[in-house]
Every structure is written in C-alpha cells, then in structure tokens.
C-alpha cells in the first residue's frame, strides 16, 4: 500500500535495477522535482551519481545556497556547481523581448550543462541522465502534441536535445503531492519540499525590460520581503505562488520625506490555482498587503510604488513574460 516509505524503497529498487553499477548525472534547478529525483538516485547508487547545479544568477535570495548547502547536507550528494551568472548576464545584455530571453537562457543552459557533463564524463563512464519528470508531464507531452506554445517553457535541468544519455525518470508515476511526500521521507528541507512553482528562466522573466545585475538585486530584495510576509501571515499553502515583478522600464513620481522620488513600481501577482493552467488572483487580506507595501517602499529605495495584479488566467498568464 501507498506509504512514503514503501514508495521510496520501491523506487530505489527500480533505480538500482535500471542503473546497475553504472554512473549517472542529474541537473538540479533549485526546484522540488529535480531535488527529489536526485535524492532518490543518490539513495540508490550513492556517489556514482553526480549532480550538476548551473547557477544562472537568476534565482531568488537564498536559493543557490539552499541547493549548495542545505540539499547537500540533507542528502550527502556529490555536487558539481557551475557559477555561470556572468555568462548568462552577458548573453542577456540588451535583450527585452520575453521569448528572446527564454531562448537565450535555454541555449546557454544547455551549453553550460553539456560542458559540465563532459567534465564529469572524463573521470567516470556516465551513461545515465536523471530527470524529475512527473506523471502530469508524461501525460501532457504524450497528449498535447498540437498545443500551441504560449510561452516556450524551459525547464532548467531539461534534456539537451542531442545528449546521448539514457534517461532515468524515477518520478514519472507520481503527482506533485506524492513527490513532496517522498521528498519529506528522504529528509529534504521543508522549504525545498514546499517550494512554490518558480519558472526555470527565473527572475529574468520577472524584470520587464533588460536584465541587469542592479535590477536583479532590487527584485531579489523585493521578492524576499514579499515571501517573508506571506509566510509570516501563514499564507504559503493558501496561494499557489506570488510572482513579484519589477517594471524596470517604468518610473513614476513619488514623495518621501521632503523629497520627490522617481522610482520603479513592483507588481504583486498572488494567484490561486489547481494546476497553473487556469488561475485566479488571490484575495490576500488588505492588512497583509499594506504591510508588504510599507516594507517594500521603506526598505528598497529604488521602489516607490506597489501595485496589485487582479487579473485571472485567462486572459493573463501567471508570469508577466
Ligand atoms: P504562466 O505564466 O504560463 O505560468 O501562466 C504557468 C506556470 O508555469 C510556471 N512557468 C514556468 N516553469 N519553466 C518552468 O519550469 C518556465 O519556463 C516557466 N514559465 C512559467 C509559472 O511560474 C507558473 O507556475
């Protein structure tokens, strides 16, 4: 019967059967699925798994550390970190178009991942690539061949098209809630197991306008404040996710102390959803919103206006790009 502990031992057995005494690599994105898949495979084959974390510099505050420190501490996984922030920023320089941003990030990710994979393959006969594919992904890619591409969804950690690895997909029979239960059973940190969805291209698609180091820093601070306050208000599980969007090319006039300011707006986009296909804007209590607004404008000098997105999906998507 279905208990997290039974499912873990079944999956571990199946992974051992598939990989035998072979070697595997796994790309970590910072998200739940790749982390749980990696933890399972590590449980099955130990150090014959090497994880690769490409830090593209577009994650939120604390997320790279969560992978590099907390995840490693919890699993003992062998981790290869590539700090590629400069490379991604250079490639994104001057780029404003959302799809162009996604294409560039996807392309750079594959190049960096391939180079790391080659390094690892130079010292071990790596034959397998681990992926955190879930059951809904399997169904979607099988059934939705003609679905229009609304946004080119790039999953960091995804399979480079011409890599010649055999796939290990230990989560392909599981739904998200089951993956979380397995992750908890494996001793992964709560904050990782319960992480809300976050796009592979990261903060790049939450900066409306060119992505720069300074803008990333502003958005990262804003996002951290919002997450802190939503958590403090006990709303993490009530909302699906809350993108924070920096309107980097928009400025508006404000007044603070004795002075006129000319700063940037941030948008709060809290949504409720079952599966991200449709969504409604979340009715966050006004006092929580008020507190977030005060903190954002007090603590982040570049921000002088906070706006709330009250559009459902459709017609708007959850992310702004
Ligand atoms: P949209 O904006 O299309 O988002 O309503 C639906 C859900 O998907 C997430 N999202 C992504 N996830 N790679 C991902 O792994 C991506 O490129 C990507 N783009 C959007 C978004 O956060 C929301 O949960």
From TrEMBL:
This is GMP synthase [glutamine-hydrolyzing]. It comes from Acidothermus cellulolyticus (strain ATCC 43068 / DSM 8971 / 11B). One of its GO terms (molecular function) is ATP binding. The lineage of its organism: Bacteria, Bacillati, Actinomycetota, Actinomycetes, Acidothermales. The chain holds residues 202 to 522 of 522 of the full protein. Its EC number is 6.3.5.2. Pathway: Purine metabolism; GMP biosynthesis; GMP from XMP (L-Gln route): step 1/1. It catalyses: XMP + L-glutamine + ATP + H2O = GMP + L-glutamate + AMP + diphosphate + 2 H(+). ATP binds at residues 29-35. Signal peptide: none annotated. One of its GO terms (cellular component) is cytosol. Catalyzes the synthesis of GMP from XMP. Keywords: ATP-binding, Glutamine amidotransferase, GMP biosynthesis, Ligase, Nucleotide-binding, Purine biosynthesis. Residues 2-195 form the GMPS ATP-PPase domain. It comes from the Bacteria. It is an enzyme of class 6 (ligase). Homodimer.
